[in-house]
From TrEMBL:
SUPFAM superfamilies attached to this UniProt entry: NTF2-like (SSF54427)
Species of provenance: Luteolibacter flavescens
Residue stretches spanning the membrane: none
Boundaries of every SnoaL-like domain copy: 9-101, 119-238
Protein name according to UniProt: Nuclear transport factor 2 family protein
Domain of life, source organism: Bacteria
Amino acid sequence: MSTRAELTRRCFEAYEKKDRSLIEPILADDFTFSSPIDDRISRESYFARCWPNSKHAGTFGIEKLLEDGDDVVVTYLATDKAGARFRNTEVFTFRGDQVVHVQVYFGSDTAESASREEIESVIARWNDGICRKDVALVAAQVDGDPVGYYLAPPLVADEPLEENLAGWFDTFDGPLHQELRDLQVKASGPVAWAHALAHLNGTKKSGERTDLWFRLTMGLEKSADAWKIRHLHESVPFLMDGSDKAALDLKP
């Protein structure tokens, strides 16, 4: 049987290897996770919110690992894939050979960075859903009653999101491609905003080719479980030559 120290090290190894199968058996079904930006979130929420950040993980240099009763206290120096370094302390609470709670202690700068990475993951999944024409995947990133200012009329979207997406996706033949450029994210407490330039292209069932750059702005809010998109605004400039035509051929 592995010791609790070995099991704790395996949790960090899972992040280094991006291998969820290494950590899943270690976390109890009633596992909870706390940090400066998380208040005892569930196992399910932990995997939805925290695990996607493993893609940014590099190495974890464990400096101290101490066992105290049912707790294992770890201090480490982490280096992410971009080369940035930060030091954290985590307390793993065990019941038998499974972890029932993790408490992470880190500063506000790291907390803001963690929120930004989580929001970027939400936007990446939203964009992937658009490209795959996957209504369920897109809707999973969005609050149940979002405010939509889309390229298509009306001024404010008044159709349920799933119906709106399904109808729009159905106008295209084959997959879509949407690239987000210059994405910027700023979070403050439970509220965040993001903006980017988006390049959409695909082929309509009529045979017409869509190839368009537009401006994208999102408002997000953090609920008890996860960040969700609450507002989405798409726009293009219009020509100021009296024609009032949309400027559809602009490129960054």
